[in-house]
Amino acid sequence: MRCKMNDDTGTDYLAPWQLSQVADGGGIGVVEESRHTNLTKGDFVTSFYWPWQTRAILDGNSLEKIGRLLGCSRVVGICGTHEKCLFLTSELGFDAAVNYKKGNVAEQLRESCPAGVDVYFDNVGGGISDTVISQMNQNSHIILCGQISQYNKDVPYPPPLPPAVEAVQKARNITRERFMVLNYKDKFEPGILQLSQWFKEGKLKIKETVINGLENMGAAFQSMMTGGNIGKQIVCISEISL
After folding, report:
1. In the Enzyme Commission scheme, what number(s) does this protein have (predicted)?
2. In a 10 Å sphere around its CB, with 0-12 CB exposed, 13-18 middle and 19+ buried, how is residue 88 labelled?
3. What is the pLDDT tens value at each position of the chain, 242 positions in all?
4. Which CATH superfamily hosts domain 76-181?
5. What stretches of 39-134 show up as alpha helix (H) in DSSP?
6. Using an 8 Å Cβ cutoff, are 88 and 64 in contact?
């Protein structure tokens, strides 16, 4: 969503928002009335492109538990507050958490990943990613999901790495593959079923920061962009009645 504020979104599947255009975003809703044969009252529906005039926005992830369930032996998170670091380690089960706003990130990362990094899920780019890449192992992998630190800069997407970091990537044969969720539409349904099953079994935990009222949409978005939320940032338009 942040990249849609730029003249060039850096993607071929997202167009920039235009002045006076209603902003849209991902949301979850409940069917209140339906004449469609595949939808009945009470069904939950989702969309990437609901207008904010009538719907909700949410953002976040639960990578640690998914990584652990898929075989990762050690999972380390990077965030910007002590509260979030504590949440990652005490509630979500991360082995360690690095606070990039406090102390030396490279030293914290070496302490947290003494054997180096094998897989890096990159949502941020910039200096933090450069530091992580410098400590990645031979034949490791970067999953390039976002580059939030670079969206205010006039650079292509994905942004090029600094020469020294690019040299490390090439020397260690580190893959840096762009991940686009819309390329996996055929996996949405089985993915939702698997995540739901893990949640029902208590293997996944969900954390939400909820703000009520469509009129607070702007404040919620600003808070999310400045790190004010923990977990998914949700704007609740109305109470669900089933």
Report:
1. 1.3.1.48
2. buried
3. 666 666 766 666 667 767 666 666 667 777 777 878 888 888 877 766 655 554 333 333 456 567 766 778 888 999 988 999 998 899 888 899 999 999 899 999 999 999 999 999 998 899 999 999 999 999 999 999 888 888 777 777 788 899 999 999 999 999 999 888 878 889 988 988 998 898 889 888 888 888 888 888 888 888 888 888 888 888 887 776 54
4. NAD(P)-binding Rossmann-like Domain (3.40.50.720)
5. 63-69, 82-90, 105-112, 126-134
6. yes
